[in-house]
User: What shape does this take?
Amino acid sequence: MSFAANPRQFVIRFIFIGVAVVILTRLLFLQVFEDKYKVMANDITIYRKVVYPPRGVIYDRKGKPMLYNSVVYDLAVTPNNVPKSLDTAQLCDVLSIDKASFKKLMYRVVIRNGYMRQSPFIEQLDLAQTARFQENAYMFPGFELVERNIRAYPNASAGIILGYIGEVSPGMLKKDRYASYTQGDYVGMNGLESSYEEVLRGQRGVHFLERDNFNRPRDPYQGGALDTPEVAGRSLQLYLDASLQAYAEKLMANKIGSVVAIDPQTGGILSMVSSPSYDPNLLCGSERARNFSKLYRDATHPLFNRAMQASYQPGSTIKPMTGVVALDVGAISPSYGYPCFGSYNACSRPIACEHHDAGHAANFRLALAHSCNSYFCNIFRMTVDSKKFGGVKKGLEKWHDYFYSFGYGHKTGVDLPYEGKGLLPDSSYYNDRYNGVWNSCTVVFVGMGQGELALTPLQMANGMCILANKGYYYTPHFVRAIDSNSKDPLLKQYKEKHQVLHIADTTFSLIGRAMQDVVESGTARGAKLDGVDICAKTGTVENKAIVNGQVMKMKNHSMFVAFAPRENPKIAIAVAVENAGFGAAWAAPIASLMIEKYLHDTIATSRKPMEDKLLNAHLIDKNVYLIDSAQRLRDQRNYELRQERKRLKDSTERVTDSLMVQAWIHRNLSPGKNRRK
Assistant: This one.
């Protein structure tokens, strides 16, 4: 048969022959020339050592290390390689544990990872344990030391920002992000450690070592020719100011609340405090699991990042934004005044105002300086009721669009995990709540920062950046550069300028001057700093809680927002102190001292008494512990109810299955049924 007569047959033959040649060639190469696979097969004389690289270091804005790496050793075990003749008593003596603990640890390893996979037996041995095991390692086949790099922190601050590392969990291993990890690997669990895990982690290496007569790894096999070098993690350079962060945490000690300070010109976060805070060193070392449990059970919730997860009614701190919208839509002019004599009575119920003197709200600047509730309730209603929008529902949607563009009602995009988005109500929200029947009086409290509006302190600080920059902001973020490269592609999203609608500069200039009046002659005179034009707004937020089954009026939350200086601003800040009282009493001086610390790097002698007062104040309400205890009891009862429902459901399903099986047997297998005739 000629090729021309039937070419397809010859082509198919050539393809099969070619594939066979390729496979045989590859097998020959693997078995004869490739030493790597010989090593992997010859595990008796060659030790394959996985080398974990040091994680990247994190530095503050001045190059000061926020954390560094410390070398420790885990004792790992492969249960299948442990001989039955193992001298358990000797191993227990070397490790300073008893036999019961040995059995418990081995059982845990087998349950988690089976017999064939190497798993951590004891994590982070102390120096004495490490030295004793190294001397006697040849006596314990199946056990070996694994070098690790753990974190150490030179300062007991910024724990909520930096995060911590821990062993990757089985649930995490099921996610695509952790596909390259194995049980026993360490991974960033929270904070920057989690957000930048792929940057900080580095790349594992593999070294092949020859074993000696005592089965101890010694010299590199073939001079290290087959080794895969480990690659150290990349470092992070932050905008965070370590000294400012530590100072803020001291000011917030024995208080519940948060502080966020941002550089408005970059969006770089200078400080973020969630109080009570914790020492990040507690979550590293062999005691980290126990310490984590204590922190988790703490009634003040130090592991909860209030700065970006807690939502507060902003109170009067929202009034500058209410003014921006009213001015921009043309609902008012700067000269607009309102005759307030202690309350707002235009709706069905009076709304109290702290000021009674005539003329305190004669124009916008005076109204903001005195924080007149009546004025801002009225201009909010004038905004949403404006005829140009065609009804209150469309007017509220317009107001919502403004506030959404200010960064409210959605996540800012900060480079930390688990950010909250707060609450920004729109017309749909009120339609659902009031069955479509509502008006501007129904929602009037929103205009003064109460009602259904809720913001995170991070959103409040970002709002101050918008005012400071006169209409734009950068997404708040911590990382300035990766390995000193500020143009790393991962940081591109934080370089984008976000323009807020198209509000006139004159409007922002008016707001800035009015906020400066708040400090110079208004409700925040205690925050005044010589030589610095601070623009600010105080806030006092009503606070209720359920205590012993009853709704109780608690002390108000103290709130404060600011930016400084007014021209060429360097810092924008938001402070929330829970259950503390007036905004001017606590939040304002904390913010003022932080501004001074950041701009001048010191605190003036004349302001030391104010500083001492704040450092020594204890403002944690005792009811916090009662509320937490009651909440934990409710959570426990709800958990037990869910478990009981699950047991009942499972029991019902089993009974149903049993009945179905019995019915099937009766239909198909009973005597006289389905017999062949």
